[in-house]
Design goal:
77% helix, mainly alpha, 14 helices, 304 residues
Length: 304
């Protein structure tokens, strides 16, 4: 019978982290279409506020019900106020930015997030960004920008950084600190417990921010698509996704965790094509392949 070695166990843990983030990207991509269908009927703050409240309840049921963890305030609860606050800043800034600029422009800013995470991974955890990892991040980022701008060099050249992009940059900056802090703040609690308290803190921050709009929403007369979107966002794009990020952040460098965000437009392309909304051009598809190639290189890059 084969004997498991520490090296093999570490390799298995890293593989599990990569698979978790692959699933994360697939779930986040699925939220775009549903979110777009719901937003005409509900504001961003009420949608995200209830999303995080429901997500917290789902994760609490899993963590303290199905998994049998003891419900108690963890040591140093200020940790969750910080990580939840950073997450809330990201989501709030994203929706503020979308009122001022286009999704294309904000998506372009998003491609800077993995490199910023790599910087904070080095600053907070001394995680070294080796040349191979830097190359793979840049390669995936270039592919992502190509996809976002639909393979048009003219559109890329015409990108103009305005106030909306600046607001979203602040949000991405905050979120890039989130992944390395998860590992730095970890005190050995189960991942589901960490996810619950992070979700709860995020919900509190977003509800406080959007309380006026939340109270003004006519909850009893929302169409069915809003509740379908809310269920998906709460369970898959919030509770499950937070669990996956927490899980991966304890096994992978921050730069590798955040790099999987590059795959979001790739999954969106596949979902839109399979749902009958049309496939992208060959030029855009090539950009998607570049993203995948960059992440393959990242997978095999040394961890430290």
């Amino acid at each position: 019978m084969a004997i498991s070695t520490p090296a093999a166990a570490d390799k298995g843990e890293r593989l599990a982290g990569h698979l978790a983030m692959l699933l994360f990207a697939a779930l986040i991509a699925g939220s775009f279409s549903l979110g777009k269908l719901a937003l005409p009927y509900i504001g961003p703050a009420p949608l995200n506020g209830l999303r995080f409240v429901l997500g917290t309840l789902v994760m609490g049921t899993v963590a303290f019900g199905a998994m049998g963890n003891r419900l108690a305030l963890p040591a140093a609860p200020w940790r969750f106020a910080i990580t939840g606050g950073l997450t809330a800043v990201y989501f709030v800034s994203m929706f503020i930015a979308l009122k001022m600029t286009t999704p294309v422009s904000t998506s372009a800013i998003f491609t800077l997030l993995p490199l910023m995470s790599a910087f904070f991974g080095w600053l907070l955890l001394k995680q070294v960004l080796r040349p191979v990892m830097a190359l793979s991040l840049v390669l995936a980022g270039l592919g992502s920008i190509w996809v976002i701008f639909k393979g048009s060099p003219a559109a890329i050249a015409g990108f103009d950084l305005g106030p909306g992009e600046a607001v979203y940059f602040v949000g991405c900056f905050a979120y890039s600190i989130y992944a390395p802090l998860l590992r730095k703040f970890s005190r050995g609690e189960p991942v589901a417990v960490l996810s619950f308290f992070t979700l709860a803190a995020t919900a509190v921050w977003i509800v406080l921010y959007g309380l006026k709009d939340i109270l003004a929403t006519d909850w009893l007369h929302l169409p069915g698509i809003v509740w379908i979107a809310l269920c998906y966002l709460a369970v898959f794009s919030t509770a499950v996704s937070f669990f996956l990020v927490q899980f991966a952040s304890l096994r992978l460098p921050a730069s590798k965790v955040m790099a999987y965000g590059y795959l979001t437009p790739v999954f969106v392309i596949v979902y839109e094509g399979l749902s009958g909304h049309g496939w992208v051009t060959a030029s855009v598809a090539m950009g998607a392949l570049v993203i995948c190639g960059g992440l393959v290189v990242l997978y095999f890059a040394p961890e430290t």
